[in-house]
Amino acid sequence: MLIRVLYISFILFISSPIFAQEYTYLKSTVKAGEGAYSFLERYGLGRDIATLQLFREINDLADLNLLKNKEYKLPIRVYKYNGTSIRTTIGNDDYDYAVSIQKYNEQMQSAGNRNSDYRDDLILWVPEIMPNVTQIAGKEPANPNLKGIFPIFGKDYESVELIDDRLKDEVYYIVAGHGGPDPGAIGDYGGQPLCEDEYAYDIALRLARNLLQHDATVYMINRDPNDGIRNEAVLKADKDEVCYPDLEIPLNQVRRLNQRVKAINELYSKHKIEGAKKQRAIIIHVDSRAKGQRIDMFFYHNPKSSQGKKLAETLRNTIEKKYAYHQKGRGYSGTVKPRNLHMLRETYPVAVYAELGNIRNFKDQQRFVVEDNRQAVANWLCEGILND
C-alpha cells in the first residue's frame, strides 16, 4: 500500500502543470504624429489582422483612429518575473518560445522602450502574438486564414488574411481617379507637389485590401506595377499606371473613361453569369477647390440608380458616425447628390463616386499625407460597404 501511494504521488508530481502568474497589459501613450500602426511598431508588434483586432478589443475601440497623448493598452502581457525562468513565470514549458520572449525583451531594451533588463527589474514583457517568433524559433508558420498573396499591394502588405466571409460572392471594382499621363488635381505641401492620382490610388489600394479581408472578389481597375501601399507623407508621382488587365492609359479623357468602363462591364458580365450576389463600383477622387476651402468627404450617384443612392447614403452616414465618435463636436457636412457622370452612367454595376477632400487645403491635406489617416478613410469606406 505504501509503495502504491508513493507511486501515485510521483505521477501527480511529474504531471503537474507549470502555473503562470497573473498579468496585466502594458500601457503606453501615443506620441504626436503617431498612428495605430506606428504606435504598435514602436513596440515591435506587427500589422497583422490578429494583432490589430486584439489591440482594438483590449481597448474597446470601434476602429484604429487613436488620440494623441492618450494612454492605450498594448497587446503585451506584463508579468512579475520570478527570478528563476521565463517558462515558470508564464506557465509555458516551450523552450523556443521562452528564447523568443527573452530576445524580444532584450530588443525592447536596446530600442529604449525598456529602462532595464527584465532580470534586474523583474518585469517581463510577453506579446500576445510574438512578432517574428516563427523566424526566431526556426519553424514554418501556418496560416489557415490566408486569403492570398497580392503583389499589387507591395511587399509589406501583399499577404492578405481573412477576417470573415461577409462579402463572399460579391464583386467590387475599385477605380482611382486619373492616373497614367494625367495626375489630376495638384496641391502644394511645403513646396512639394501632392498629386491627386497618387493619393486616390493609395487609398483605393487600402480599400481593396480591406474588402479582400472580408472575402470579396476585388478588381483594381487602374493599377501601378510597382507603387503598392506606401507609408510616406509625400507620395512620389509617376506615369506608369495601366488599366486592367495591362493596357496603356490614354491621355484623352473620354478614351480613358471608356477604357475603364469597358474593363468593368466585361468583368461584370462574366461574374453575372457566374452568379455573383452583388457587384459594385467605387470611384475615388480627390477634389480641388480654393486653398481656404475645407470640405468633407462627399458622394455622387447615378440619378437613375436607387441602389446607388442607397449605397452613397450608407457611406455618408457611416462617415458621419465615425466623426461623431472620434471628433465630438466637429460636425460633418458631407453630402450625397445625383450627378450624370460618365463613370456612373455607363458602368453596369451599381456605382458610387467618392470625393475625399480638397487637395489644396492644408487641413484637408492631413487626410492624405498622414498614412494612418489614409488608412482610416479606407477603413470607413469599407465599413460603409459592409453596412450596405
Q: Supply the CATH superfamily name of the largest domain.
A: Zn-dependent exopeptidases
Biggest sheet record: 6 strands, mixed
Low-pLDDT windows of residues: 1-17, 133-142
How do the strands line up in the largest sheet?
A: 9-6-13-16-14-15
Q: Indicate the CATH class of the largest domain.
A: Alpha Beta
Q: How many angstroms separate the termini?
A: 72 Å
Number of helices: 13
CATH topology of the largest domain: Aminopeptidase
**Oligomeric state of the chains in view:** single chain
Number of domains: 2
**Radius of gyration using CA atoms only:** 25 Å
Q: Give the SSE string.
A: HEHHEHHHEHEEEEEHEEEEHEEHEHEHH
**What is the averaged pLDDT score?**
87
Question: Total strand count, please?
Answer: 16
Q: Approximately what portion of the residues adopt beta-strand conformation?
A: 15-25%
Structural class: alpha/beta
User: Helicity level, as a percent range?
Assistant: 25-40%
Identify the overall geometry.
Answer: elongated
Assign the CATH architecture of the largest domain: 3-Layer(aba) Sandwich
Describe the structure.
It is built from 13 helices and 16 strands. The protein is of the alpha/beta class and 388 residues long. The chain has 2 domains: 18-137, no CATH class; 146-387, 3-Layer(aba) Sandwich (Aminopeptidase). A 6-stranded mixed beta sheet has the order 9-6-13-16-14-15, with helices on both faces. A 3-stranded antiparallel beta sheet has the order 1-2-3. The model is unreliable at 1-17 and 133-142 (pLDDT under 50).
